[in-house]
Specification:
Helices cover 70% and strands 0% of the residues. α7 runs antiparallel to α11 and α12 packs parallel to α14. It has 528 residues and is mainly alpha-helical.
Length: 528
């Protein structure tokens, strides 16, 4: 069993980082595992960091952060993506820095620490090596003279033994052959840089350094002398703002909920499109006004009438955000669902939650750190959830289910949008093939589904496998009730084509046999 002293030593961490870099090189190149190896490599990195730094195991917050990083690594294993990759390094960085902090602090301070940690990571091995050489410069020459003669026999003996093992063990022989067969460009341009990147990432977790100078969090408490901001002006402002918001919310309720007809010449889709994002900006400005002009502990915030007006105004802002989301839903019903529109709806939910937290902070006299941490936790929880969900697949399923050509109440089916989604739309396309629809839509669904299925099958054969890709293939085969293992890849075809004859030719299908013309019954010739 490795003692704690050796587990925390410089040489042990150096060996662990080199070993992780070697594992990454073998997994990515010798085993050709590709992106499917990233998640397991990240889990291995967390395990090695926890073993090399016992302080992580003794810190509850550090263990929590490493657990969240492991969940992000699991998301990378299910469906590799930039979001899961970023979340992994956020939580892994917090976990490795946590034992060096006396208290958690707030998200603003941690944002600065993580930026410093990321910027320093690329130079950390060289900085640590320079520091080590500076400390041991005087005694290193004598140690080197004594160590070199003692290394000759182990080095030569190891080479001889490895050579004999290579003759007896085909696995070791294959390693030697693959190493000797590497060309210099492949070794120096591809493999060594990637191994160096993994070594650097491992080193950043094994030997982290806190940023000593961090900007403090804005307190946001007590009275703040601002020109024109007095208790009377704030009170009048809240009365005016509440009246304006009530007018806007009343019109939204009348028109968006169908209580009253829209102005002449304006459609619901146009009304929904032009107002969603300005309303969100208005709500954010309202939150900023409350944070600046109604600071907890100030004279203005302690006035009972002002507090009631703030509560009413915040609730009106929440209603304004809800109406903005309703506008977006109406726009989606008219123009289909996209990944960006899903993200917009999720952002509106975060804005509404932030407004409620601002109100709660004012009423309960909470600190600015409390507000920042709650908002950051909500944002990270939402991002972690989104790393397990393919938003393009969600939008593809929705658009197919509500397509106007298929009897739904939504927009017309956008073939170009489905084509741009690639493999994300494969299950929606498979279900589209099973539904009654015009011939051109059926042919497009089959063409795009076969292209996506060919890509997933090729990824599986070339070790670019992912859990989500395998689940998609299984669902497609279950929906179509056939095992199309080798679908054709038809390449890129102009999505504006709607001629069934061209689509049949692209799919390699025979043209439909024309129905026989109606032939009248032969009449018996008249007798002469």
């Amino acid at each position: 069993m490795i003692g704690l002293k050796h587990r925390g030593s410089f040489l042990f961490k150096l060996g662990a980082a080199v070993g992780l870099a070697a594992c990454a090189d073998i997994a990515l190149f010798d085993w050709e595992a590709g992106r499917m190896a990233v998640g397991p490599l990240q889990l291995l990195l967390l395990a090695v960091a926890a073993a090399a730094r016992p302080a992580i195991a003794h810190s509850g917050p550090a263990r929590l952060c490493f657990g969240l990083a492991a969940i992000a690594a699991l998301a990378m294993f299910i469906d590799p993506g930039f979001l899961a990759w970023s979340l992994f390094w956020v939580f892994a960085g917090m976990g490795t820095l946590m034992p060096a902090t006396a208290r958690f602090g707030d998200a603003w301070g941690w944002c600065q620490q993580l930026i410093w940690h990321a910027l320093r990571a690329g130079f950390a091995p060289w900085l640590d090596a320079r520091r080590l050489l500076r400390v041991k410069r005087r005694s290193s020459r004598g140690h080197m003279r004594r160590a070199l003669p003692q290394l000759v026999l182990p080095a030569i003996g190891s080479c001889v033994i490895l050579g004999l093992f290579a003759k007896a063990n085909p696995v070791i022989e294959h390693w030697f052959d693959s190493l000797l067969s590497l060309s210099l460009p492949e070794l120096w341009i591809v493999r060594l840089p990637i191994a160096a990147i993994w070594f650097t990432m491992a080193w950043s977790l094994l030997r982290p350094r806190l940023c000593r100078h961090v900007l403090g969090t804005f307190d946001g408490r007590g009275d703040l002398a601002l020109p024109g901001v007095t208790p009377a002006s704030v009170q009048l402002s809240l009365i005016a703002f509440n009246a304006l918001f009530a007018l806007q919310n009343a019109m939204d309720l009348l028109w968006l909920w169908g209580i009253a007809p829209l102005p002449k010449g304006m459609t619901l889709a146009e009304y929904a499109h032009r107002g969603a994002y300005p309303l969100i900006v208005t709500a954010l400005l309202a939150a900023g006004f409350v944070l600046v002009a109604l600071r907890p502990g100030s004279k203005t915030a302690s006035m009972p009438l002002v507090r009631r007006l703030v509560v009413v105004w915040i609730m009106q802002n929440v209603l304004l955000v809800a109406n903005a989301a309703l506008r977006t839903l109406d726009y989606i019903a008219a123009y289909s669902l996209t990944e960006l529109r899903i993200a917009a709806l999720l952002w509106m939910g975060l804005v509404a939650l932030g407004l409620l937290l601002v109100m709660w902070r004012l009423l309960r006299d909470k600190s600015a750190s409390w507000l920042i941490n709650r908002n950051a936790a909500a944002a990270l929880a939402l991002l972690m959830s989104c790393s397990f969900v393919d938003l393009d697949a969600v939008s593809a399923r929705y658009n197919v289910a509500h397509a106007r050509e298929l009897g739904g109440s939504g927009a017309a089916l956008d073939i170009c949008h489905l084509q741009g989604m690639g493999v994300s739309a494969i299950t929606a396309l498979a279900r589209l093939e099973q539904r009654p629809a015009p011939e051109a839509i059926h042919l497009w669904a089959r063409l795009l589904r076969e292209n996506a299925q060919a890509e997933l099958t090729r990824d599986l054969a070339e070790y670019r496998w992912s859990v989500l890709g395998a689940l998609r293939l299984a669902e497609v085969r279950a929906v179509l009730r056939k095992d199309a293992l080798n679908p054709a890849d038809h390449g890129w075809i102009d999505c504006t084509h709607r001629d069934p004859g061209e689509l049949r030719a692209a799919l390699g299908l025979e043209p439909p046999v024309p129905a026989p013309a109606f032939a009248p019954a032969l009449t018996r010739p008249a007798k002469p």
